[in-house]
Write the C-alpha coordinates for this entry.
Amino acid sequence: MKKTLGLMLLLGIATQCFAQTHDPYHQSLVNKVNQNNIIQCLTEFEGFGIKTLGSQAEENTLNWLISHYQSWGYEDIETHQVNAYGETGYNLIVTKTGTVYPETFIIIDAHYDTINGPGTNDNGSGTAVLLEIARILADTDTEYSVKFIHFTAEEWGLIGSQQYVNEIVIPQNLDLKLVFNIDEVGGVAGMNNDTIVCEKDMSAPNGNNAASEQRTQELAVCMQLYSNLDTFISFAYGSDYVPFQEAGYVITGLYEFNESDFPHTPYDTIENMDPEYEYQVTKGSLGALAFFAKAYGELNTDEQESLQYTVYPNPADEFIILPPRKSGEKMQVQLFDSTGKLVRQSVQKPAQELKIVTTNLQQGIYFLKIGDKTHKVIVQHK
Ligand SMILES: [Zn+2]
Protein backbone atom coordinates (compact mmCIF):
# COMPACT_ATOMS: atom_id res chain seq x y z
CA MET A 1 0.00 0.00 0.00
CA LYS A 2 1.85 3.00 -1.22
CA LYS A 3 0.46 6.26 -2.37
CA THR A 4 2.20 7.80 -5.31
CA LEU A 5 4.57 10.45 -4.09
CA GLY A 6 6.19 11.03 -7.45
CA LEU A 7 9.83 11.32 -8.20
CA MET A 8 9.98 14.92 -7.02
CA LEU A 9 9.99 13.67 -3.47
CA LEU A 10 12.55 10.95 -3.95
CA LEU A 11 16.02 11.71 -2.77
CA GLY A 12 18.37 11.55 -5.70
CA ILE A 13 21.38 10.02 -4.06
CA ALA A 14 23.29 7.74 -6.41
CA THR A 15 25.00 4.87 -4.68
CA GLN A 16 28.72 5.47 -4.66
CA CYS A 17 29.92 3.58 -1.64
CA PHE A 18 31.06 0.02 -2.34
CA ALA A 19 31.36 -1.55 1.05
CA GLN A 20 31.42 -5.20 0.07
CA THR A 21 32.68 -7.27 -2.78
CA HIS A 22 31.27 -9.94 -5.00
CA ASP A 23 31.01 -13.37 -3.33
CA PRO A 24 31.33 -16.41 -5.63
CA TYR A 25 29.20 -18.62 -3.40
CA HIS A 26 26.43 -16.01 -3.25
CA GLN A 27 26.69 -15.71 -7.03
CA SER A 28 26.19 -19.49 -7.32
CA LEU A 29 22.94 -19.11 -5.33
CA VAL A 30 21.83 -16.16 -7.46
CA ASN A 31 22.46 -18.24 -10.59
CA LYS A 32 19.73 -20.62 -9.41
CA VAL A 33 16.98 -17.98 -9.65
CA ASN A 34 14.53 -19.30 -12.24
CA GLN A 35 12.33 -16.94 -14.20
CA ASN A 36 9.74 -19.62 -14.98
CA ASN A 37 9.21 -20.23 -11.26
CA ILE A 38 8.59 -16.54 -10.76
CA ILE A 39 6.09 -16.32 -13.62
CA GLN A 40 4.28 -19.44 -12.42
CA CYS A 41 4.13 -18.04 -8.90
CA LEU A 42 2.71 -14.71 -10.12
CA THR A 43 0.17 -16.51 -12.29
CA GLU A 44 -1.05 -18.73 -9.46
CA PHE A 45 -1.14 -15.77 -7.05
CA GLU A 46 -3.24 -13.84 -9.57
CA GLY A 47 -5.60 -16.82 -9.89
CA PHE A 48 -6.60 -16.65 -6.23
CA GLY A 49 -8.38 -13.34 -6.82
CA ILE A 50 -8.88 -10.54 -4.30
CA LYS A 51 -7.13 -11.50 -1.07
CA THR A 52 -8.67 -9.22 1.56
CA LEU A 53 -8.42 -10.05 5.25
CA GLY A 54 -10.81 -12.85 6.17
CA SER A 55 -11.63 -13.84 2.57
CA GLN A 56 -11.57 -17.36 1.14
CA ALA A 57 -8.99 -16.13 -1.40
CA GLU A 58 -6.70 -15.01 1.43
CA GLU A 59 -7.03 -18.40 3.14
CA ASN A 60 -6.37 -20.25 -0.14
CA THR A 61 -3.26 -18.14 -0.72
CA LEU A 62 -2.04 -18.82 2.83
CA ASN A 63 -2.39 -22.58 2.30
CA TRP A 64 -0.64 -22.31 -1.06
CA LEU A 65 2.27 -20.48 0.61
CA ILE A 66 2.52 -23.07 3.37
CA SER A 67 2.56 -25.95 0.88
CA HIS A 68 5.53 -24.38 -0.92
CA TYR A 69 7.58 -24.11 2.27
CA GLN A 70 6.66 -27.67 3.26
CA SER A 71 7.70 -28.98 -0.15
CA TRP A 72 11.17 -27.49 0.32
CA GLY A 73 11.58 -29.12 3.74
CA TYR A 74 11.01 -26.13 6.00
CA GLU A 75 9.71 -27.33 9.37
CA ASP A 76 9.42 -24.21 11.53
CA ILE A 77 6.22 -22.85 9.98
CA GLU A 78 3.88 -20.77 12.13
CA THR A 79 0.78 -18.71 11.58
CA HIS A 80 -0.07 -15.66 13.65
CA GLN A 81 -3.69 -14.67 13.91
CA VAL A 82 -4.60 -11.14 12.84
CA ASN A 83 -7.91 -9.55 13.80
CA ALA A 84 -9.30 -6.32 12.43
CA TYR A 85 -12.75 -4.86 11.75
CA GLY A 86 -14.43 -8.15 12.68
CA GLU A 87 -12.35 -10.21 10.25
CA THR A 88 -9.66 -12.77 10.99
CA GLY A 89 -6.66 -13.79 8.90
CA TYR A 90 -3.11 -14.98 9.39
CA ASN A 91 0.47 -13.84 9.01
CA LEU A 92 2.78 -16.67 7.96
CA ILE A 93 6.20 -16.94 9.61
CA VAL A 94 8.75 -19.49 8.39
CA THR A 95 12.01 -19.64 10.32
CA LYS A 96 15.33 -20.98 9.06
CA THR A 97 17.71 -21.41 12.00
CA GLY A 98 21.16 -19.87 11.75
CA THR A 99 24.22 -22.00 12.43
CA VAL A 100 26.24 -19.37 14.32
CA TYR A 101 23.69 -16.84 15.60
CA PRO A 102 20.46 -18.86 15.97
CA GLU A 103 18.84 -16.23 18.21
CA THR A 104 19.52 -13.30 15.88
CA PHE A 105 17.13 -12.88 12.98
CA ILE A 106 17.08 -11.31 9.56
CA ILE A 107 13.44 -10.81 8.59
CA ILE A 108 12.60 -10.73 4.89
CA ASP A 109 8.92 -9.91 4.45
CA ALA A 110 6.23 -9.20 1.90
CA HIS A 111 2.49 -8.78 2.38
CA TYR A 112 0.23 -11.18 0.50
CA ASP A 113 -3.16 -9.56 1.09
CA THR A 114 -4.60 -7.42 -1.69
CA ILE A 115 -7.42 -4.96 -2.15
CA ASN A 116 -9.85 -4.36 -5.08
CA GLY A 117 -7.90 -6.71 -7.37
CA PRO A 118 -5.62 -9.73 -7.52
CA GLY A 119 -2.62 -7.58 -6.54
CA THR A 120 -0.16 -9.39 -8.74
CA ASN A 121 2.30 -6.52 -8.46
CA ASP A 122 1.09 -5.25 -5.05
CA ASN A 123 2.20 -7.62 -3.67
CA GLY A 124 2.37 -10.87 -5.57
CA SER A 125 5.70 -9.54 -6.77
CA GLY A 126 7.21 -9.43 -3.27
CA THR A 127 5.57 -12.77 -2.49
CA ALA A 128 7.25 -14.36 -5.51
CA VAL A 129 10.64 -12.93 -4.52
CA LEU A 130 10.36 -14.46 -1.04
CA LEU A 131 9.28 -17.86 -2.38
CA GLU A 132 12.10 -18.08 -4.92
CA ILE A 133 14.68 -17.05 -2.31
CA ALA A 134 13.27 -19.56 0.20
CA ARG A 135 13.40 -22.33 -2.41
CA ILE A 136 17.05 -21.65 -3.14
CA LEU A 137 18.13 -21.16 0.49
CA ALA A 138 16.36 -24.31 1.70
CA ASP A 139 19.54 -26.38 1.35
CA THR A 140 22.05 -23.68 2.27
CA ASP A 141 23.32 -22.74 5.71
CA THR A 142 23.17 -19.20 6.98
CA GLU A 143 25.04 -17.93 10.03
CA TYR A 144 22.08 -15.79 11.10
CA SER A 145 18.53 -17.08 11.41
CA VAL A 146 16.16 -15.96 8.68
CA LYS A 147 12.43 -15.39 9.07
CA PHE A 148 10.41 -15.36 5.86
CA ILE A 149 7.25 -13.47 6.79
CA HIS A 150 4.14 -13.09 4.63
CA PHE A 151 1.98 -10.43 6.28
CA THR A 152 -1.76 -10.02 5.84
CA ALA A 153 -3.91 -6.88 6.30
CA GLU A 154 -1.18 -4.57 5.02
CA GLU A 155 -3.73 -2.94 2.75
CA TRP A 156 -5.93 -2.10 5.71
CA GLY A 157 -3.17 -0.03 7.31
CA LEU A 158 -0.18 -2.27 8.09
CA ILE A 159 -2.34 -4.17 10.56
CA GLY A 160 -0.75 -7.63 10.20
CA SER A 161 2.79 -6.35 10.71
CA GLN A 162 1.70 -4.00 13.53
CA GLN A 163 0.04 -6.87 15.42
CA TYR A 164 3.10 -9.09 14.85
CA VAL A 165 5.39 -6.42 16.30
CA ASN A 166 3.05 -5.78 19.26
CA GLU A 167 2.22 -9.40 20.05
CA ILE A 168 5.42 -11.29 19.13
CA VAL A 169 8.46 -9.11 18.50
CA ILE A 170 8.20 -6.81 21.51
CA PRO A 171 6.91 -9.31 24.13
CA GLN A 172 9.51 -11.92 23.07
CA ASN A 173 12.19 -9.24 22.76
CA LEU A 174 13.30 -10.74 19.43
CA ASP A 175 16.85 -9.87 18.43
CA LEU A 176 16.32 -8.56 14.89
CA LYS A 177 19.44 -7.67 12.95
CA LEU A 178 17.43 -6.31 10.04
CA VAL A 179 13.93 -6.15 8.57
CA PHE A 180 14.07 -6.31 4.75
CA ASN A 181 10.66 -5.47 3.24
CA ILE A 182 9.72 -6.11 -0.38
CA ASP A 183 6.58 -4.45 -1.70
CA GLU A 184 5.65 -3.83 -5.36
CA VAL A 185 8.70 -4.75 -7.38
CA GLY A 186 6.99 -6.03 -10.53
CA GLY A 187 7.79 -3.18 -12.92
CA VAL A 188 5.57 -1.60 -15.55
CA ALA A 189 4.85 -3.27 -18.90
CA GLY A 190 6.11 -1.25 -21.85
CA MET A 191 8.57 0.83 -19.85
CA ASN A 192 12.33 0.51 -19.54
CA ASN A 193 12.51 -0.85 -15.99
CA ASP A 194 16.19 -0.67 -15.17
CA THR A 195 16.29 0.84 -11.67
CA ILE A 196 15.23 -0.34 -8.23
CA VAL A 197 14.50 1.95 -5.30
CA CYS A 198 16.32 1.00 -2.08
CA GLU A 199 14.55 2.50 0.90
CA LYS A 200 16.12 3.80 4.09
CA ASP A 201 14.56 4.90 7.34
CA MET A 202 14.36 8.68 7.73
CA SER A 203 11.53 8.77 10.27
CA ALA A 204 11.36 9.20 14.03
CA PRO A 205 12.58 7.61 16.20
CA ASN A 206 15.99 8.53 14.82
CA GLY A 207 18.23 6.21 16.83
CA ASN A 208 17.92 3.48 14.19
CA ASN A 209 18.34 5.73 11.13
CA ALA A 210 22.14 5.57 10.73
CA ALA A 211 22.10 1.77 10.82
CA SER A 212 19.26 1.74 8.29
CA GLU A 213 21.28 4.02 6.02
CA GLN A 214 24.24 1.64 6.24
CA ARG A 215 22.14 -1.48 5.55
CA THR A 216 20.42 0.29 2.65
CA GLN A 217 23.75 1.22 1.08
CA GLU A 218 24.76 -2.43 1.41
CA LEU A 219 21.47 -3.49 -0.15
CA ALA A 220 22.08 -1.15 -3.08
CA VAL A 221 25.56 -2.57 -3.64
CA CYS A 222 24.19 -6.13 -3.59
CA MET A 223 21.47 -5.17 -6.07
CA GLN A 224 24.20 -3.84 -8.37
CA LEU A 225 26.48 -6.83 -7.90
CA TYR A 226 23.88 -9.55 -8.43
CA SER A 227 21.39 -8.01 -10.88
CA ASN A 228 21.68 -5.77 -13.92
CA LEU A 229 19.66 -3.01 -12.21
CA ASP A 230 20.75 0.45 -11.22
CA THR A 231 19.80 1.63 -7.75
CA PHE A 232 18.21 4.73 -6.34
CA ILE A 233 18.13 5.48 -2.61
CA SER A 234 14.91 6.91 -1.21
CA PHE A 235 13.04 6.89 2.08
CA ALA A 236 10.92 4.14 3.61
CA TYR A 237 7.18 4.74 4.02
CA GLY A 238 3.78 3.10 3.76
CA SER A 239 4.64 -0.58 4.04
CA ASP A 240 5.18 -3.33 6.62
CA TYR A 241 8.61 -2.16 7.79
CA VAL A 242 7.00 0.89 9.42
CA PRO A 243 5.78 -0.80 12.65
CA PHE A 244 9.28 -2.28 13.08
CA GLN A 245 11.02 1.04 12.58
CA GLU A 246 8.59 2.72 14.97
CA ALA A 247 9.60 0.12 17.59
CA GLY A 248 13.27 1.06 17.04
CA TYR A 249 14.36 -1.78 14.76
CA VAL A 250 16.62 -1.39 11.72
CA ILE A 251 14.85 -1.64 8.37
CA THR A 252 15.45 -1.46 4.67
CA GLY A 253 13.28 -2.16 1.64
CA LEU A 254 12.77 -2.40 -2.09
CA TYR A 255 10.19 -0.70 -4.27
CA GLU A 256 9.88 -0.32 -8.04
CA PHE A 257 11.30 2.87 -9.61
CA ASN A 258 8.80 3.11 -12.46
CA GLU A 259 5.58 3.07 -10.49
CA SER A 260 2.60 1.10 -11.76
CA ASP A 261 -0.76 2.93 -11.96
CA PHE A 262 -2.69 -0.28 -11.27
CA PRO A 263 -2.24 -1.29 -7.60
CA HIS A 264 -5.57 -1.54 -5.75
CA THR A 265 -7.44 -1.99 -9.06
CA PRO A 266 -8.59 -5.05 -11.05
CA TYR A 267 -5.83 -4.26 -13.55
CA ASP A 268 -2.97 -5.07 -11.17
CA THR A 269 -2.14 -8.15 -13.25
CA ILE A 270 0.90 -9.88 -14.68
CA GLU A 271 0.21 -8.56 -18.16
CA ASN A 272 0.73 -5.02 -16.88
CA MET A 273 4.06 -5.97 -15.26
CA ASP A 274 7.59 -6.69 -16.45
CA PRO A 275 8.60 -10.23 -15.42
CA GLU A 276 12.21 -9.70 -16.57
CA TYR A 277 12.45 -6.82 -14.06
CA GLU A 278 11.03 -8.99 -11.30
CA TYR A 279 13.61 -11.66 -12.21
CA GLN A 280 16.41 -9.14 -11.80
CA VAL A 281 14.96 -7.88 -8.50
CA THR A 282 14.85 -11.47 -7.24
CA LYS A 283 18.50 -12.05 -8.14
CA GLY A 284 19.62 -8.90 -6.36
CA SER A 285 17.40 -9.59 -3.34
CA LEU A 286 18.82 -13.09 -2.96
CA GLY A 287 22.37 -11.71 -3.20
CA ALA A 288 21.48 -9.18 -0.50
CA LEU A 289 19.84 -11.70 1.81
CA ALA A 290 22.79 -14.08 1.38
CA PHE A 291 25.04 -11.18 2.38
CA PHE A 292 22.94 -10.06 5.37
CA ALA A 293 22.34 -13.58 6.72
CA LYS A 294 25.86 -14.75 5.81
CA ALA A 295 25.00 -17.74 3.65
CA TYR A 296 27.89 -20.11 3.17
CA GLY A 297 28.66 -23.45 1.57
CA GLU A 298 30.83 -25.32 -0.89
CA LEU A 299 30.65 -24.74 -4.61
CA ASN A 300 30.10 -27.92 -6.57
CA THR A 301 32.43 -28.76 -9.47
CA ASP A 302 30.26 -27.25 -12.18
CA GLU A 303 29.80 -24.08 -10.18
CA GLN A 304 33.51 -23.89 -9.47
CA GLU A 305 34.25 -24.19 -13.15
CA SER A 306 31.83 -21.49 -14.18
CA LEU A 307 32.79 -19.17 -11.34
CA GLN A 308 36.47 -19.98 -11.18
CA TYR A 309 37.32 -17.50 -13.85
CA THR A 310 37.09 -14.26 -11.94
CA VAL A 311 38.24 -10.94 -13.23
CA TYR A 312 39.60 -8.51 -10.65
CA PRO A 313 39.66 -6.08 -9.03
CA ASN A 314 35.91 -5.52 -9.05
CA PRO A 315 35.14 -2.66 -8.51
CA ALA A 316 38.04 -1.63 -10.75
CA ASP A 317 39.87 1.71 -10.57
CA GLU A 318 42.76 1.85 -13.08
CA PHE A 319 42.55 -1.60 -14.69
CA ILE A 320 40.80 -4.95 -14.84
CA ILE A 321 42.95 -8.09 -14.82
CA LEU A 322 41.87 -11.20 -16.74
CA PRO A 323 43.90 -14.07 -15.28
CA PRO A 324 45.49 -16.60 -17.66
CA ARG A 325 43.17 -19.37 -18.84
CA LYS A 326 44.09 -23.02 -18.87
CA SER A 327 42.30 -23.96 -22.04
CA GLY A 328 44.15 -23.23 -25.26
CA GLU A 329 41.93 -20.89 -27.22
CA LYS A 330 42.26 -17.26 -28.11
CA MET A 331 39.40 -15.26 -26.65
CA GLN A 332 37.88 -12.08 -27.93
CA VAL A 333 37.41 -9.63 -25.07
CA GLN A 334 35.00 -6.70 -25.26
CA LEU A 335 33.97 -4.19 -22.62
CA PHE A 336 30.59 -2.51 -22.98
CA ASP A 337 29.18 0.34 -20.93
CA SER A 338 25.68 0.16 -19.43
CA THR A 339 24.14 1.61 -22.60
CA GLY A 340 25.67 -1.20 -24.69
CA LYS A 341 28.41 0.94 -26.24
CA LEU A 342 31.69 -0.87 -26.89
CA VAL A 343 34.44 0.97 -24.97
CA ARG A 344 37.41 -1.46 -25.00
CA GLN A 345 38.34 -4.39 -27.19
CA SER A 346 41.18 -6.90 -27.09
CA VAL A 347 42.16 -10.52 -27.55
CA GLN A 348 43.43 -12.74 -24.77
CA LYS A 349 45.97 -15.34 -25.88
CA PRO A 350 46.18 -18.73 -24.13
CA ALA A 351 48.07 -18.74 -20.83
CA GLN A 352 48.39 -14.98 -20.96
CA GLU A 353 47.20 -12.47 -18.41
CA LEU A 354 45.38 -9.54 -19.97
CA LYS A 355 45.12 -6.08 -18.43
CA ILE A 356 42.37 -3.70 -19.56
CA VAL A 357 42.99 -0.08 -18.64
CA THR A 358 39.97 1.63 -17.10
CA THR A 359 41.56 4.88 -15.90
CA ASN A 360 39.69 7.07 -18.37
CA LEU A 361 36.34 5.33 -18.11
CA GLN A 362 33.48 6.98 -16.29
CA GLN A 363 32.41 5.37 -13.03
CA GLY A 364 29.56 2.93 -13.35
CA ILE A 365 28.54 -0.53 -14.44
CA TYR A 366 30.21 -2.26 -17.40
CA PHE A 367 29.80 -5.65 -19.03
CA LEU A 368 32.96 -7.56 -19.92
CA LYS A 369 32.30 -10.12 -22.63
CA ILE A 370 34.92 -12.86 -22.83
CA GLY A 371 34.05 -15.39 -25.50
CA ASP A 372 30.41 -16.23 -24.79
CA LYS A 373 30.52 -15.34 -21.06
CA THR A 374 29.62 -11.93 -19.70
CA HIS A 375 31.01 -10.57 -16.43
CA LYS A 376 29.58 -7.54 -14.74
CA VAL A 377 32.29 -5.09 -13.71
CA ILE A 378 31.97 -1.90 -11.75
CA VAL A 379 34.39 0.93 -12.41
CA GLN A 380 34.91 3.15 -9.42
CA HIS A 381 37.78 5.61 -9.15
CA LYS A 382 39.42 6.21 -5.79
ZN1 LIG B 1 1.82 -3.36 -1.08
Notes: The chain has a mean pLDDT of 92.
